[in-house]
């Protein structure tokens, strides 16, 4: 897998003022090794997005939390079902993973989100101490089919991404972008 499929949006460490600069050789090896895994779990998050819409549970968003290469929880947006505007896929996944692991910190876990997290979810990802975020679609793809434009500033529009040691990876996955066009006729905002 080509390392060029990845864009590292933020990889700075909390304690250091020196930005992390990956060694090109080692970075390639690292990302090549993780690439199949990342695509697998992101595909699962995308699958959840479709399931959530088919069930009528919520909008087309999925999230998967992984611990030591095993899926802890696989969730989707539950806003319609719960009548809860905060029941985004990432929030549901964090709540369920904490319950399942009996922890309030998920510092050994990674979260895979079908779409770039909104500000609320991005905040929750930080509060739960998740160590890594991998996402597929840009939030703009959701905004394009009618979702609130405020969701587009989750990662880029906050200081959080410069203050934490969260590794954020935007995976180049067209399947994640396609979710919105493929489901937009199946729910109403
Ligand atoms: Zn959200």
UniProtKB/TrEMBL annotation:
Pfam families linked to this entry: dCMP_cyt_deam_1
InterPro entries: APOBEC/CMP_deaminase_Zn-bd (IPR016192), CMP_dCMP_dom (IPR002125), Cytidine_deaminase-like (IPR016193)
Signal sequence bounds: none
UniProt KW Glycosyltransferase keyword: no
The UniProt record lists the keyword Hydrolase: yes
Sequence ranges assigned to domain CMP/dCMP-type deaminase in this UniProt record: 36-150
A GO molecular-function annotation: guanosine deaminase activity
Keywords: Hydrolase, Metal-binding, Zinc
Any one GO biological process: purine nucleoside catabolic process
Assigned protein family: Belongs to the cytidine and deoxycytidylate deaminase family.
Protein name: CMP/dCMP-type deaminase domain-containing protein
Origin organism lineage: Eukaryota, Viridiplantae, Streptophyta, Embryophyta, Tracheophyta
């Amino acid at each position: 897998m080509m390392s060029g499929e990845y864009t590292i949006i933020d990889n700075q460490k909390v304690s250091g003022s020196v930005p992390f600069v990956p060694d090109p050789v080692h970075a390639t090896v690292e990302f090549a090794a993780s690439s199949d895994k990342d695509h697998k779990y992101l595909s699962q998050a995308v699958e959840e997005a479709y399931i959530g819409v088919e069930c009528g549970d919520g909008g087309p968003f999925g999230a998967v939390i992984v611990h030591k290469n095993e899926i802890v929880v696989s969730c989707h947006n539950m806003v319609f079902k719960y009548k809860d505007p905060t029941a985004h896929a990432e929030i549901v996944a964090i709540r369920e993973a904490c319950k399942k692991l009996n922890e309030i910190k998920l510092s050994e876990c990674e979260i895979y989100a079908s779409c770039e997290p909104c500000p609320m979810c991005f905040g929750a990802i930080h509060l739960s101490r998740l160590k890594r975020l991998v996402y597929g679609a840009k939030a703009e793809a959701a905004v394009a089919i009618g979702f609130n434009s405020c969701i587009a500033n989750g990662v880029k529009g906050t200081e959080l991404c410069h203050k934490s040691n969260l590794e954020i990876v935007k995976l180049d996955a067209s399947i994640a972008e396609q979710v919105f066009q493929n489901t937009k006729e199946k729910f109403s905002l």
